[in-house]
Design a protein that fits this description.
heterodimer; A: alpha+beta; Aldehyde Oxidoreductase, domain 3; Aldehyde Oxidoreductase, domain 4; 2 domains; 7-stranded mixed β-sheet; 5-stranded mixed β-sheet; 13 helices; 21% helix; B: alpha+beta; 4-stranded mixed β-sheet; 6 helices; 11 strands; 28% helix
Chain lengths: 527, 340
């Protein structure tokens, strides 16, 4: 049951509208409830082939040899695709906004870094024939030690998961293995606090569980173009990612989507489109690649597990004076989008509270598991779990009502936030007051009278003196550039470690971005 | 065996939009000669109702009935660029782009109407029912259909508009983390009541009361759909779901919905929601967006309610019966806290 509390903040709104604020029925409702809305998989094209991938059975292993001879002779097999067939077999999703280094192949070449990593793709006349041929591929693996725990992965001597990041951490601002947040002096505040509480929290990896699994259908169109029906939640993100991986101009593709059977963040990674398009390029036929439920659940990316250490300093009257956070985001074997969630998380600290001293170190860590990706509340959900459990413990520690404790510490208009921007348009106090009212949770009058619009700012608007970390290299803010600027990164790439495979991890990457290398009709190379 | 009840709370905020910035969305709006409008987008409707919200924004801005607007997504040949439907950016970013495009189209429509009525466009207003008339003189009126016909066949004008919304890329200071991560924030508070069985460790949801502040609720029914569904996901994350039940040990991973547990109809509970609207200065009609945040307060509220019920703190998600039972046994039995 939903109640609109129009009485609150009424002076900030003009509610005189014709269409805004009405509960108008959805434009797509009839199609959805009668089962007639068109999803990508409703496009059954003539002569359509089916693509399936062979996935690694090992969490970490060197690939010694791949034998596809027997599979090639299986009935119905049209084409077997290997890493060398992928024009640019190394990518990172956020390269579209120049964030991070290319670190993930479409098909594994030298080694596999998680159980379920795609190694070979088969395009066949039917699902069954594709599956049967997959079983005939022989891969000779040399298993390597694997690391699954984020803190183990940071220790000296831990197996190197991903040679692009030899310390098993994403690199921030070209120098740091974590994103920092520094505001005031937490150590001094801890020394003067009446209570100090340090706790550990652990988020679990979680499946997006969409009704419709990830998938796409690609088909040759006229004029050398390809039409792609897809379940993506980011049409141009996926289109541009495919243009990069397949090394063709972006107008080679006509992407059609828009009606998606659940996303929750799990359909940004562009997992199927590059291979279904490549399959269509190599065979000249429509190709469909859709995840089965087990693939979606175990090898499609989950919500990442985050481990969080929170240390708070508090006075006897319930005011929190310091919050120190150390968090490890489990990115799995590749970056995908976890690197971005780390920065978003740093900005979120210390939660919706005004705390004069805040210190954050947030790490994006590589382990030998399925790469994690965005999921509803990305970068925030686990931190909110940690912060709000901690808030309950702190209130208990000083014997305060947990509602009143939150109102006392809530941020208000005019307060300085730890990422050094003024808080505006805040409404935490009002939410607590209304929730208390609804739940018949008694609040004392002084807490009922408090407001997000009163008593903020002033001394609470100050940026406190903040010491730099010792030995921090002196440098200006990280160079940030225009989205879609694909110029090379200015920073030198670190050398690959000795532990890396003697085999080059990827074919040399051409700097150009434009030449079509495949005939859509014959599927042969014409380099 | 005893079942213990307890209540827990959580309060949160949520940043709207992609925090690295530089995440534009574009929209195109045009009219056909019957005065019916099409919004062309490449944005995705994941089921959250993005098409419906942008349709209402477009209709309100143009001053036409919502039935006269159709939103077309997502085709890369016809829809202009959009970063995608993620990071709670649909209502805010795409909504702002649609609003800008509709404003431009409205400008042409009013000029065309002014020419037909032989008045100054500044003296005209829309009635929201498909007519344009002179302010203070409703009888001097023309329908949007007649304006569209005149624009197309007589005046040679395209009633169309282009819109983009871009929050520029924010630099992030490597030493302090100083940045402009988002443009506005939504807020929430949740009270969860649970019942914990101290023999089995099972946790049953009893009820939830919540307050969400989302800027303007552009479509309260869609807001309700998001908040109810999101709270279900919150219960599921709190008590059931994981792809690795013994994380960081990756074994025992579920492969289908028989092995992967989620709450069924018998596991959910009544949820009473209040929505507060503090309009965001840069939101379309002050809207922020409810999309991502609504699962977040449920997890800690449930964990805190379990403590209130039996006195155990479970700091690892999901809070399975096994973890609850081990914790209760570890402290020598349930220790109910003060009822609240």
């Amino acid at each position: 049951m939903l109640e609109l509390r129009k009485d609150i903040f009424a002076d900030e709104r003009d509610d005189n509208f014709n269409e805004i604020g009405k509960g108008t029925q959805r434009q797509d409702m009839l199609g959805h409830v009668t089962g007639t809305s068109t999803y990508f998989n409703d496009h059954q094209l003539q002569g359509m082939l089916h693509l399936k991938v062979l996935r690694s059975p090992h969490a970490h292993a060197r690939i010694r040899r791949i034998d596809i001879g027997e599979a090639e002779r299986c009935p119905g097999v049209r084409r077997i695709i290997r890493g060398a067939d992928v024009p640019r077999n190394l990518n990172t999703l956020l390269s579209l906004i120049n964030f991070g280094k290319d670190d993930e192949p479409t098909l594994a070449v030298d080694k596999v870094r998680y159980k379920g990593e795609p190694v070979v793709a088969i395009v066949a006349d039917s699902h069954r024939e594709a599956f049967e041929a997959l079983a005939r591929i022989r891969v000779d693996y040399e298993p390597l030690p694997a690391v699954f725990d984020v803190e183990e992965a940071l220790k000296a001597g831990a197996p190197v998961v991903n040679e692009t990041y030899p310390k098993n951490t994403f690199t921030y601002h070209d120098v740091y293995d974590h994103q920092k947040l520094r505001f005031g002096d937490v150590e001094r505040a801890f020394a003067g606090a009446d209570h100090v509480l340090e706790q550990r929290y652990q988020m679990s990896p979680i499946e997006h569980a969409p009704t419709e699994t990830n998938g796409s259908i690609a088909a040759p169109d006229t004029n050398g173009r390809y039409i792609v029906y897809t379940s993506t939640q980011a049409l141009f993100f996926s289109l541009d990612t495919c243009a990069k991986i397949l090394d063709v101009p972006s107008n080679t593709f006509h992407f059609v989507g828009g009606t998606v059977g659940g996303g929750f963040g799990g359909k940004v990674d562009t997992l199927t489109e590059p291979l279904s398009i490549l399959g269509a390029m190599l065979t000249g036929r429509p190709v469909r690649y859709i995840f089965g439920r087990e693939e979606e659940m175990q090898y499609g990316p989950p919500r990442g597990a985050e481990r969080i250490y929170l240390k708070d300093g508090m006075m006897r009257d319930g005011r929190i004076v310091a919050r120190k956070v150390r968090a490890y985001f489990d990115s799995g074997a590749y970056t995908r989008l976890s690197s971005y969630a780390v920065v978003k998380c740093a900005a979120h600290l210390p939660g919706p509270y005004t705390i004069p001293n805040v210190h954050g170190d947030i790490y994006c860590v590589f382990t030998n598991r399925t790469p994690a990706t965005a999921m509803r509340g990305f970068g925030i959900t686990a931190m909110d779990f940690a912060i709000e459990c901690q808030m309950d413990k702190l209130a208990h520690l000083v014997g305060m009502d947990p509602m009143e404790f939150r109102i006392l510490n809530a941020y208000r208009d005019g307060d300085m936030k730890a990422h050094r921007r003024e808080a505006k348009n805040t409404a935490l106090i009002e939410c607590v007051q209304v929730a208390a009212e609804k739940a018949k949770w008694p609040l004392r009058d002084e807490f009922k009278r408090m407001s997000s619009r009163k008593d903020g700012g002033g001394a609470r608007a100050a940026v406190p003196a903040t010491a730099k970390d010792p030995l921090a290299p002196a440098r200006s803010a990280a160079p940030q550039r225009t989205p879609y600027d694909r110029a090379p990164q200015p920073a030198p790439e670190p050398a690959h470690p000795a532990a890396a495979s003697p085999v080059s991890p990827a074919a040399p990457q051409p700097a150009s971005h434009g030449a079509i290398r495949f005939s859509s009709v014959f599927g042969s190379r014409r380099r | 065996m005893t079942r213990h009840r307890g209540r827990g709370i959580a309060s949160i905020n949520y940043p709207i939009g992609m925090n690295l910035g530089g995440d534009p969305s574009q929209a195109l709006v045009h009219s056909n000669p019957s005065g019916k409008f099409t919004v062309s987008l490449s944005s995705i409707d994941l089921g959250q109702g993005m098409k419906s919200v942008t349709r209402q924004i477009c209709a309100e801005t143009l001053g036409v009935p919502v039935e006269d607007v159709y939103v077309d997504t997502a085709d890369s040949d016809t829809g202009p660029h959009c970063m995608g439907s993620f990071a709670s950016r649909g209502t805010h970013r795409v909504g702002n782009a649609v609003m800008a495009a509709a404003k431009e189209a409205r400008g042409v429509m009013m000029e065309a109407a002014a020419e037909e009525l032989e008045v100054n466009a500044a003296d005209l207003e829309t009635d929201g029912r498909g007519n344009i008339h002179v302010k203070g003189a409703p009888h001097r009126s023309i329908s949007t259909k007649d304006v569209a016909i005149a624009a197309q066949f007589k005046q040679g004008k395209t009633i169309s508009g282009r819109g983009i919304f871009l929050v520029p890329l924010s630099a992030v200071d490597p030493e302090t983390g100083e940045m402009s991560p988002a443009t506005c924030y939504a807020h929430a508070c949740m009270v969860a009541e649970v019942e914990v069985d101290d023999e089995t460790g099972e946790v049953a949801m009893v009820r939830m009361d919540s307050a969400y502040e989302l800027g303007r609720a552009l479509n309260p029914r869609l807001v309700e759909q998001q908040l109810v569904g999101g709270a279900w996901m919150g219960i599921s994350h709190a008590l059931f779901e994981t792809t690795e039940p013994y994380y960081p040990d990756p074994s025992q991973g579920p492969r289908d919905f028989v092995e992967y547990l989620m709450p069924g109809p018998g596991d959910i509970c009544p949820h009473d929601i209040a929505v507060l609207e503090r309009p965001a200065a840069d939101g379309p009609f002050g809207a922020k967006g409810p999309g991502e945040m609504c699962a977040n307060p449920v997890m800690p509220a449930v964990a805190n309610a379990i403590f209130n019920a039996v006195g155990v703190r479970i700091d690892d998600l999901p809070i399975t019966p096994e973890k609850v039972l081990r914790a209760i046994k570890g402290q020598g039995g349930a220790r109910p806290q003060a009822r609240r």
